[in-house]
Task: structure prediction
Amino acid sequence: MIRIFDADLSDAAHAAAVVACIDAYAADPMGGGRPLAPEVRVNMVPGLRATPAASVLLAECDGEIAGAAVCMMGFSTFAARPRLNLHDLSVLPRFRGRGVGRALVEAVAERARAAGCSAVSLEVRLDNEGARQLYRSCGFGEGFAPMEFWLRSL
Result:
């Protein structure tokens, strides 16, 4: 059984679970293939707590934390309504293929509907076919045209 719930980032166990899930994602080849730096592990939860637009869902499967979805609320100028960005989705390797990712994505979509959002957005690597299949099966499409995600490090 999969249970999705809001992470309480002031709860040490929830905070540790979020960091563990995102660290597992970072260490995966699709997340860059390297674990998070120690300072990132220390600063992630305080940073999320200090970001009013941030929200985190956790997935529990058979009594264990199985994954996390980190979201950021934004605003669509084209729709003049909020838009929820699924910033990070992580399912721990031992829970993959059991519906955890789908449950998290659907919970994010429900949260967006309840908030009056026009859409849920996300970025996905072109070579991450597993994630692309999941997102397509959950109703996501490529939008207006294929996009690139550009980054300027500061």
Notes: Residues 123 and 152 are 16 Å apart (CA to CA). Helices lie at 12-27, 38-49, 100-114, 129-137. The two ends are 42 Å apart (CA to CA). The mean pLDDT is 94.
